[in-house]
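Incident log, structure service

09:12 report received: a user says their structure output differs between two submissions of the same chain.
09:20 pulled the input from the user's history:
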Amino acid sequence: MIRFYSPDIATTATLPESDSQHAVRVLRLREGSEIEVIDGKGKVYTCRITVAHPKHTAIEIINTTELPKVWQGNITIAIAPTKHNDRMEWLVEKLTEIGIDRIVPLRCRYSERKEINEERLRKIAVSAMKQSLKATLPHIEAMMPFATFISEEAQRPAMKYVAYCAPEIPRELFAQRYVSGHDTTILIGPEGDFSHEEITSAINAGFAPISLGDNRLRTETAALVACDTCHIIQQLNTQAIK
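09:34 re-ran on a clean worker, output below:
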């Protein structure tokens, strides 16, 4: 069944213009056609089209199902955006497919990029959510200074980790340090890595210093490895309990 996205479907019973256009003009759906609609908050709605309009298709909700996340806790990746936009867009797509709750772009000392197009990243995340048959849309925040994020995150009750390359500052392998079953926040630096001051600031704020292995990774690859490591360890722990 074709799946669409409407964050307010429960109250508006209407598809947004982009999805209405896709349903009516591209897929040629008409009154009576059944579709699935996700709200990005974990629910899937089985619906029937009552008014097939290219700008505001109206629907009737037939059934509502909760689609729980397949991972535990909330996973946050806070990352300095890559120099090239397409690499950051690729990362948002893949993180959404794997499963993540929040993506926070950071402005760091050695950041290559100072601005991002949040709206475009959100559209990419929506598309990836649909394609991967998920119902949870990650929250993509506005870019914020590294120091601001560290100050705010220090107050949150989450397991916190900072990944960096500097060998002179001791760190542990993430796969060995990670504790599953909790809210998790992982810091990933820019191509030039975090500065020593940023690393020290994060550690002092309660972030555990970690390495993602011996391979040299691109910024976006490091973020993907970190997120997937969380999922793999969670799955292994779940299987061990069974």
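09:41 both user submissions now match this output. Likely a transient worker issue. Closing.
09:42 reviewer note: The chain has a mean pLDDT of 94. Residues 42 and 135 are 5 Å apart (CA to CA).
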